[in-house]
Please model this.
Amino acid sequence: MPWPRPKGRFRLTKVGPMRTLILNFKNYPEVMGEGSVRLAEVAAKVAANSSVEVVVAPPVAMLGVVASRVKIPVFSQSLSDAVGDKTTGANLPESARAAGAVGTLLNHSEARVQVETLKSIIPRARQLGLRVCICANGVDEGAALSRLGSEYVAVEPPELIGSGIAVSKARPEVITRTVEAARAVGYRGAVLCGAGIVDGQDARRAVELGADGILVASSVVRAKDWEAKIADLAHSLE
Model:
């Protein structure tokens, strides 16, 4: 039996001016257990009052719970290419989809994946109706990975992740060159900017440089006021 396509405002290719904000919860203590639900609910509240697509990626253990509690897109933080029933501990694409995920992050700098593995996972995820955001560590990798058919490519220089120093400020050419390189090979998806995005000014600058949105983590998860932080970022992308 074919898997149902996710319902709602989900795109397969970049169309129109919609911007995207993907919030990676990672495994910070603030989002353990019900913390993930609380943050996702805040993100959903902001999304309801914004023209920006807000996506949340909670810890894998909370994927199903979060997906059942909010109506915004929920992504898995990663997927395994393991196949079959005897795959203890593996986060199968089929399992993530059944839990309510509508997409996934892949190849984050903290969970790197071989290209051959990506070539295996992506078609499988797409067949299930899962959108894919591939993370790249720079221009060359971003251009190469954009050929794999994902809906998003997020460029994140590893040395700036969690640094509080935005790539849009420290290395703006990484964004412009990645966008140019991806479009040059015919990529139609969204190019996102990650690494060190702290506030709305960083987000706005990323868009000015050609990005279609941002991928953030610690600047939101560790913020004292989640709603104010997410709203600042989202409204700066509009």
Q: What stands out?
A: The beta strands are 20-24, 53-57, 75-76, 103-106, 131-136, 152-155, 190-193, 213-216. Residues 1-16 have pLDDT under 50 and may be disordered. The domain at 20-237 is CATH 3.20.20.70 (TIM Barrel).
